[in-house]
Amino acid sequence: MNFDDTPEEAAFRAKARAWIDANAPRQFEDELRSAYYASLGITSEDPIPHAKAWQAKKAEAGYACPSWPKEYGGGGMSPIERVIWEQEEGPYWLLSALFMIGHGMCGPTIISWGDEAQKQHYLPPMITGEKVWCQLFSEPVAGSDLAGLRTRAEPAPDGSGDWIVNGQKVWTSNAHLSDYGLLIARTDPTVAKHKGLTAFLVDMRSPGVEVRPIRQANNNRDFNEVYFTDVRITDANRLGPVGKGWEVALTTLMNERLSIGSMIPTGFPELFAFAAGLETIDGPAIEDRAVRSKLAQWAVKASGLKYTALRGISALSRGENPGPENSIGKLVAGTMMQEIATFALDLQGPAGILTDKAVSPADGWFQVLLLRSPGSRIEGGTDEILRNVIAERVLGLPGDIRADKGMAFNQIPTRAS
Amino acid sequence: MNFDDTPEEAAFRAKARAWIDANAPRQFEDELRSAYYASLGITSEDPIPHAKAWQAKKAEAGYACPSWPKEYGGGGMSPIERVIWEQEEGPYWLLSALFMIGHGMCGPTIISWGDEAQKQHYLPPMITGEKVWCQLFSEPVAGSDLAGLRTRAEPAPDGSGDWIVNGQKVWTSNAHLSDYGLLIARTDPTVAKHKGLTAFLVDMRSPGVEVRPIRQANNNRDFNEVYFTDVRITDANRLGPVGKGWEVALTTLMNERLSIGSMIPTGFPELFAFAAGLETIDGPAIEDRAVRSKLAQWAVKASGLKYTALRGISALSRGENPGPENSIGKLVAGTMMQEIATFALDLQGPAGILTDKAVSPADGWFQVLLLRSPGSRIEGGTDEILRNVIAERVLGLPGDIRADKGMAFNQIPTRAS
Amino acid sequence: MNFEFSAEQVQLREQVRRFLDQHSSSAAVRAVLDGPPPYDAGLWSGLADMGLLGIVIPEAFGGLGLSYLELCVVAEELGRALAPVPFSSSVYLATEFLLATGSESQKRAWLPRMASGDAIGCLALVEGPGPIRARLVKAQVRNGRLSGTKIPVADGDVADFAIVAAQASEGLSLFLVDLAAPGTTRETVSTIDPSRSHARITFDGAVAEPLGPAGHGWPIIEDVFDKAAVLIAFEQLGGADKALEMAVAYARERMAFGRPIGSFQAIKHMLADMYVSAALARANCYYGAWALSTGAAELSQAAATARVSATQAYQHCAKNDIQVHGGMGFTWDLDCHLHYRRSNLLALSLGSLSQWEDRLVDCLKGAVA
Amino acid sequence: MNFEFSAEQVQLREQVRRFLDQHSSSAAVRAVLDGPPPYDAGLWSGLADMGLLGIVIPEAFGGLGLSYLELCVVAEELGRALAPVPFSSSVYLATEFLLATGSESQKRAWLPRMASGDAIGCLALVEGPGPIRARLVKAQVRNGRLSGTKIPVADGDVADFAIVAAQASEGLSLFLVDLAAPGTTRETVSTIDPSRSHARITFDGAVAEPLGPAGHGWPIIEDVFDKAAVLIAFEQLGGADKALEMAVAYARERMAFGRPIGSFQAIKHMLADMYVSAALARANCYYGAWALSTGAAELSQAAATARVSATQAYQHCAKNDIQVHGGMGFTWDLDCHLHYRRSNLLALSLGSLSQWEDRLVDCLKGAVA
User: Fold this and answer.
1) Taking the alpha carbons of D201, D205, D211, D214 in that order, is the dihedral positive or negative?
2) Contact check, Cβ <8 Å, B281/D323
3) How far is Cα D27 from Cα D11, in angstroms, rounded to an integer?
4) What is d(CA C109, CA C115) in angstroms, rounded to the nearest whole number?
5) On chain A, which terminus has fewer CB atoms closer than 10 Å, C or N?
6) What are phi and psi of C190, to 5 degrees?
7) Could you give all domains of chain D from N- to C-terminal order, each with its CATH number?
8) Crossing angle (nearest 10°) for helices B327-348 and B365-376
9) Active site residue A256
C-alpha cells in the first residue's frame, strides 16, 4: 500500500508537469482555483476562446482525451497515466468543463457504438475542442425514469431513410454552445419502453432545433431546453441499431459514472479554512466544540471520498473497472455540500444572508453554494436513484416492482388514477 | 389556548387526587418513578399481586378502565376525565403494565365486536384485574405483514361447531401471565389474505397451548412464543363474523395507537439530568457546546412530542378522535431513545461499557436503554411501517404496490425467487 | 384545558388565508423577488385595512387590542404565503420595542401610524458577521447623535424609522431614529431571499431619540426577541406546511415508471419525515403561543424551543420540497426555491440556530436548577 | 501508486477467514458471551500457532516481523468474526507499549511469550467515568509500589501482566506489573458485551517495574493509541461489513407482502446507506493502514479519521442490521445483537467518539497551520 509512482509513472508525471508549466494559461490560475462549483471556470473574460485554445494545445501535444485511441487524436494513455495527467492538469482542468459532456459521455459512447465513418468524422474535432457536444436525454416527463422519454423519431415520409424528430429535451448543459448532440428518441411507441428507443447524432444547427436557456432556482442559466420541430437526421447519423437506444444510453451513463476526475466538491476544505480563520466573540470558531464535532464528521466523509477515489484509481491501475461503487461520491458530496453551506451561514450569523461579495463573509462563496446545492442532489441521478443503484448493482437487492413492466409504451398510465 | 382545568375538570381532579393519596401503594412510589422502560414497574417484590391489588381497588372505586361503560365495571368517564385520571395516577400507572394489552387493546376490541354474552363474561374480570389478557397476532413469518399470518383455525371434524387451532404466535407480551388471549387465525387460505381471517377469544389454559419465553437480544424475557396444537375453541368464543378477522385486528391496532397514556420514553429527561450533573475535567458537561447542541436538538423533539400529545388530548376533549398522527410519537421516541443511549455512553467515556449498577455511571440506566432500544424501533410497528402509515393515512399518498394483491393466500410466494 | 386555537381564531385564519391567496400569490411574491419594488405596497395597505398591522396594539393607539394568539395565526399565514412585506420588522419588532419601553409620547407618535400602515418601523441591531451580542454593537450615540453602520437591516430601505441599538455612556441603549432625517444613508443589499428587502444603513450624526432607560438595551432586546421568535416560528411553520403540501401534491401527480412517484417508499418516507418535523414544530409553536399569550415565566424557554424546532422544520421541508420535485424543483419557475430561500433567510433572522440552541439549554438548566 | 492490499495480504486474509469461520463461529462467540470462560483459549492458541499474535514482533523476539498491513488484515477478520480473545489488549496495546518503550530485557522477557500465546498483556489506564486524560489518572507509584484502582481493564482478568499508567514523582509514567504477584486484586465486571472480558483491578502495593522513561507516559500512550486506533478501526470495519452482509442476505430472503423485503425502498435505501458508511470507513481505514505501515507524519490524523469513521460505520451497520431483521433481529438467538454489543463496546475502547473528533480537528488544524 503506497502512494508512490512507479519509475515509469514518475517519468510520465515529470514530462506532463513540464509541459503544463510551459504551456498552461497561467494568468487564470488563481481564478480557476477559486472558481465556483458548476461554472466554466473563469469570468474575468469570455471563457470559451480560452477553453478552446487550451484544448487545441493539449490535443497537439497528445494530452487531450488522454485515454482515447491515438488514431482519432486521443492520448492513448493507460488509465493510471490518465489519472496522473489529470492530477497535474490541476486547476486548468476546469477549462475543459465546456467539453465535459463530449469527452466524458458522448465520445466514449461513439467509440463503443459508432461505425468507423462516425468515429472518423466526429471524434477528431471533439478532441481538439473544435466541436462542442451536448447530451439530449432528459425530458420534462422523463427524468429519473429516462426510458419514459417521449421525443419521437419517425421515418421521413419521403422514403429517403432519414428520420424526422419532434419533441422536447431539458437540462441540456451547454446546448447553446454546442455543435452536436447525442440524442435518444422513441422510434417505436408500441413496444415496451426500453425497447422502442434509438440513438442519433444530431447537428445542433439543423433547422427546427431551438435552444432556450432554463432559469434555474439559483438564478443561473447553465442548462437549456431544446425543442425539436421536424428536425431531419440522416440514417448515417443513427448511432447503433434501431431499437437499441436504451443500451446506447446505458453506455453513456456508465461512462458518466466512470469519469473519476469529475468528483463534485463537498465544500469541506473551504468550510474548514473559513472556520479555522473565524474569530468569534467567544474565541476562535474552531475551538467551539459544537463546531469541532461537525467539522470532524464532515472531515471523515471528505477523507472517505478522497480515498475511495484513490481506491478506484488503484483498481484502474490494476486494469480493473471501478464499479457503481463510485455512485457514493455524488450521493455523499451532494448532501454534504448543502449541509455545509447551511452550517457556514449559521456560523456567520444574521449577516450570513448577504450575497454581495463585498459585504458577505468569505466573499459570498457559501451563499452561492447554498443556492446551487439543491441541484447537486438531483442532476445526474437523484439521491434516491443513486441509493437504488447501490442497493441493486452493488448489494444485489431486488429491483423495485415495475408497474409498467412489459407494457407497451403507449399503454403506460401518464396520470395518477 | 390554555392548560387550565374547567371548574368541572378541576373538581374531578381534586377528587381523583384525594382518592389516590388515600389509596395508592405509596411504598412503591420511588421505585416506580425510577423504573426501567418496559418493566412491570417494581422489582423489589413480586409485582403481580401488587398490580392486581391496585387494579381491584381502582375498580371498586370506579377508576379502573376509566372510559369504559359503567355497566361492565368501567369508569364511564369522559375522554378528558380519563386523561386527568391518568395524569393524577402518575407513577402508579406503571402498576397497570400487566393489564395494558387487555385494557388498551383486547377490551376495546371486545366492546366493538363482542356479543352481549362475551362482554358480560370477559369485561368485568378484565377490569378488576382478576384476569390478564394477551394478544396473539404476530407470527414468525407475519410481522409487518400481519395479514400474512398462518395459524389455522379449522372446523372441528366432530361437527360440534368448535374450532381446532394449530400454529405459532410470537412476541406475545405477558403470555405466561395471561388467562385469556385475543387470537387471529386463518380460517380460509383459499381467498385473499385479508379475507380469510377470523378472531377468537382463547383460554390460555386450554390443552394444547404452550407458552415459551423468548430470550431477547437484551437478555430479558418479556415476550413469549405461543404454540397451538389442536387447541379447541368453541364457536361461542369466536369474536365477530367468520372472515372478518382482519377488521377485528384493525380495531385492536387502532386502539393501540389511541392509548395516549402509553407514550414510550425518549430518555431525554434522564440524559439532561445526567449531563447537567456531570463534571468533566474540562468543566461541567452541560457547558460543552457540542453537548449543548445535541441536548437542544433532543429537547425540541421531546417538547414536540409532549405538546403533540397535549394537542391530542385537546382533540379528545372536543370530542374528536386523535388520528394516525399519533404514530409520530413512537417513530420519534424510538429513534431518539437509541441515539440518546449511545450519546450518554459516549459522555461516560470508556467506563460507559459497564453495566453493573454499582460501578456504572447513572446506575447503568443508559446501558439498559441502549440494549433495549433496538426493540423499540420494531415492536408495535417498525419505523418503516409507521412512515408508511403517516404517508398513506395522514398525507394521502398512494399505497405500496402490492405484489400479492388479489392473490389467494395459498398462492402467495413464500420464497425469494 | 384547550391547546388549540379557538373557533374565532380559526375563522380569522381562514379570512387571512383567503386574502393572501389573492394578494400574496406567487406572482405577487415574484414581483418583489425579481423586480424593483422592495415590498408589495398594495398587500401592505390591504393588511392595514384588515387591521392586521395593529393586532396587539391597544385600541387607544389605533390597534385592535387583540391577543398574541391572533398575531400567531396571522404570522403562520404570512409565512405560508411568503408575504413580501415588512411585517416582521414593523409588527414583531418595532411595535414590540415601542410597547415594551416606549414613552407615552413615542407610542402616540408612532403606534397609530404603524397600525394604519402609514409608518414602517425596523430594527437596526446587527453590524456584520457574528452572533448577536451586546458587545458586538459598535454604533454609538454621543450627545444625542448616532454614528455607526448597521448591516443587514431587514426593511431598512423602506422603513420610516428604526429602533437602533447603540452604545451610550450608560452602556448598550436603544434609540428611535427617523430614517428620513439627515445623517442617515441607506442602500439596499442583496441577500439569498430578495423577496424580503434588506439594507445597509450608515448613521453619521443622525439624531437619536432615547427609547427606554439608558443602558438597559440588552434585556429589552432579549425580551422582544423572545416574542418575535415565537411569531417568526409561526411564519416558519406556515412555510414548512406549505412546502410539505406542495411536495405531497406533486408526489401524488407526477408519474414515473408508470406510477405516481408518491408510491415509492423513498419519496413517501421523505414526506413522512417532513410531516413529522412540521408536526413537532407545530406543537412547539403552540407551546410558544401559549407562553406568549399568557406571559408565562417560561416564555424564553418556549420561544427558544419553538424557534429551534420551526427553523429546522422549515429548512427540512423546503429543501426536500425541491428534492421531491426533482429537476423541475430546481427551476426558477416553480415556487420551491422561494421557500428554500425564505427558510434560510428566516433561519438567520434574530440570530443563528446555534445561538438559539445555546439559549434553550440555558433556559432548561434554569428550569432544572 | 497502489492503494489496496497486496496479493499476499489478500491470501493471508483468506487463510485467516477460513480459520475463523471454523474457530470463531457464532457458537464459539456465544460460549464466551454466555458462559464462564472469559475468552476462547482454543481459538487463542490457534491464532498463536498461525503466528498471528506476533505479526509485528521482530523475529529476534519470536515474532514474524511482518508489517502493520498484515496486522490490519488480521484485525479486520477478527472484527468480522467477533473473535472472543484478548487480541487487542495483548497485540495492539501491550505489545506496542513494549515495542515502543520497553527495555531490551523487558522485550526479551515478554515478547516471545506473547508471540507464542503463553503470556497475555493488557493495558490498565482508565479509572472510571470520563475522558482519557493524563490528569484523571490517580493511581500512583511510590518506592516501586503501585496503588490505585483501574476500571474497566479489557482482559484484565485473564492477562498475565498489565501496562499500568500511574503518577510517579516525575509525572505520569508507565509501569509493567505482573498480575500474579501479591498486591493485586482483580474481579470480572459485567459490560454491554460479555463476549469480551473486562475487569476491575485494585493495586495495593503491587511491585511496579518502570517501563520507558519516567514522566513520559502520556506521549507514549498517545503514540500507541494512534496505532491501536487504526487496528481497532479495522476490527470495526470487519464488523460493519459483516453486519451489512447479514442484513443484505436477510433482506433478499425474508418475504413480506409476497415479495422479498429487500425489494422495498425503505429497506434498500437503508442498506445502501449502510454500504456507504462502510465504504467510506474502508477508504479511511486504508488511509490509516498506509500511515501506520509507512510511519507517515500524518499518522495521528489518519488514525483519528479511521477511528471516527469506523466507529460510526460499525454502530450504524450493527443497529440497522437489527432493524432489517425486525423482531427476529431482537432475539438472543440471532447474531445481530452480538454486533450491536461489540460495535458499542469498541466505540468506547480507546476513548469516546467525541474525544477522537477533538483529536482529529487538532490534527487538521496542525496540517493547515
Assistant:
1) positive
2) no
3) 26
4) 11
5) C
6) -90, 145
7) 7-98 (1.10.540.10), 121-215 (2.40.110.10), 218-368 (1.20.140.10)
8) 140
9) yes
Angle at the Cα of D321 (from D319 to D327), degrees rounded to 5?
A: 95
Which residue reads 416582521 in cell numbers? C88
Per the CB < 8 A criterion, the answer to whether D159 and D178 are in contact is no
Contact A98, A51 (CB under 8 A): yes
Nearest to C26 by CA among C106, C90, C81, C104: C81
Q: What distance, in Å, lies between the first and last C-alpha atoms of chain A? A: 57
Cβ separation of C198 and A170 shorter than 8 Å? Answer: no
pLDDT tens-digit profile, chain A (417 residues): 888 888 999 999 999 999 999 999 999 999 998 877 767 788 889 999 999 999 999 999 999 999 899 999 999 998 888 889 988 998 998 898 899 999 999 999 999 999 999 999 999 999 999 999 999 999 999 999 999 999 999 999 999 999 999 999 999 999 999 999 999 999 999 999 999 999 999 999 999 999 999 999 999 998 999 999 999 999 999 999 999 999 999 998 877 766 544 567 899 999 999 999 998 878 899 999 999 999 999 999 999 999 998 888 888 777 777 666 678 888 999 999 999 999 999 999 999 999 999 999 999 999 999 999 999 999 888 999 999 999 999 999 999 988 898 899 999 998 887
ipTM computed for the complex: 0.96
How close is the nearest chain C Cα to the Cα of B293, in Å? 6
Which residues in chain A are closer than 8 Å to C128, comparing Cβ atoms? 351, 359
B80–C354 CB contact, under 8 Å: no
Name beta bridge partners: C154: C198
User: Between chains, do C353 and A215 touch, taking CB under 8 Å as contact?
Assistant: no
DSSP lists the bridge partners of residue C177 as C162
The residue behind cell 417484590 is B45
* CB-based burial label for D108 (10 Å; 0-12, 13-18, 19+): middle
| Cα A332 to Cα A309: distance, rounded to the nearest angstrom | 13
Interface test with A, best of D270, D274, D361 (most A CBs within 10 A): D361
Read off the C-alpha cell for D170: 516525575
Q: How far apart are CA D300 and CA D228, in angstroms?
A: 11
What one-letter code names the amino acid at D186?
Answer: R
d(CA D29, CA D335): 10
Backbone dihedral angles phi then psi of residue B44, each to the nearest 5 degrees: -70, -25
Cell of A344: 457556514
D149 grid coordinates: 484502582
Residue A371 sits at φ, ψ, to 5 deg, of -75, -25
> Are the beta carbons of A129 and A47 closer than 8 angstroms?
no
Grid coordinates in use for C151?
448591516
Task: Let me know the angle formed at the C-alpha of D265 by D262 and D269, rounded to the nearest 5 degrees.
Answer: 90
Beta strands A163-173; B209-214: pairing state: unpaired
Pairing between strand C198-207 and C161-168?
A: unpaired
With contacts defined as CB-CB under 8 Å, which chain B residues touch A416?
398
Q: What's the gap in Å between the CA of D362 and the closest CA on chain A?
A: 9
Angle, helices C353-368 vs B268-277, to 10°: value is: 80
Nearest to D168 by CA among D140, D208, D127: D140
Which of D259, D265, D267, D270 best probes binding to C when mutated, by most C CB atoms within 10 angstroms? D265
